[in-house]
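Let's practice the habit of predicting before peeking. Look at the sequence and jot down your guess about where helices and strands might fall. Then scroll down.
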Amino acid sequence: MRSSIFLKRVSLRNYKSIASCDVRLSPLTYLVGANGSGKSNFLDALHLVRDALSGSLDNAMNERGGLSEVRRRSRGHPTHFGIRLEFELPTGEPGHYAFTVGAVPSGYEVQREECCIGGIGKGPFFELERGRIIKSSETAFPAVTADRLALVSASGLSAFRPVYDALIAMGFYNLNPKVIRELQKPQDGRLLKPSGENISSVIGHLARTNPTSKQVIEDYLHAVVPMVHGVERETVGPMESLSFKQDMAGDKNPWRFLAQNMSDGTLRALGILTALFQGNSDHSPSLIGIEEPETALHPAASAALREALERASERTQVIVTSHSPDLLDDMKIEPESLLVVAAEEGVTRIVPLGKGSREVMRQHLCSAGELLRLNQLNPDPVSPDTPALKQAELFGEPR
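Done guessing? Here is the structure:
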């Protein structure tokens, strides 16, 4: 069976609080760190790529406050930021996509951009500098400008379309119970939106096209909230909502309640589970990123949530941010699936688990959750000369 891993390695430079990071990802990766350590900034860098390709770089930057809010702040005032993604396409072909964005008097420009599938000289590739083609495997390349990512234009070429499609199919979620609770306009229900603003349409779409996934969502929701036995899309005039079947004392048949009557924890759990098990053979996320899935859930629900994350990661790569010992309290969690996020003097470090902590977990002496409770979930120590603290190389062949 093909691995669910889409992004194999991520390198960032000067992105928000992250000066430099270079990490490998697993089918299920936990980014573990305290509040304010920079976990969300890592996911946001991937989210920016998705937004810039599916919309425009200008909109993606403006939604984050512009270049000055995206690039790292420091005494040296970096003038640029860079992102490199090493991936494996559904066909099994490896490749990488990288770009840097820097300041110019008129605002910003894409200083350099590179995409390669299968290795330079082995498959399709292009390299641009400031909107000009430097190298390309293609005899004809569409017109590009320095204020946009060239991969958007290159997606019109069959050689690069798979990369574009996979990158815009990444989904990032910070589920909002208030948004899920409100009446929603009927929308495209193929893929869930970031806050859950189209979840009613997604549940309705799954009921029609993938009832098996809908049943999985309902089964896990029942494990998390035992009184709830099912959920359906409900038409409310020109709008729509969700209705839940829930046990009531003294009645052998469940009652139906609209989303507006359900707790934050129930709605957030439904949103997380829908994000994990959405899609079908025609439309599925290539990667799912979820911010602190344990929020608003009772600690007793952690085992069911963890099982859902593991099951979903068998078909779609999953990245979660967390600082919950309960969620990580499982001896089966592999040390390689953990990345420790720590902030030192305002600079975020994202590195693998330290050797000592890895050995403790491999020998099943403590779970990751127990180590976190003991404040012993330590990062791999590095010196200024190790690659982890050097500027990540963004371009060229995979290292």
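How did you do? The first helix runs from residue 39 to 54.
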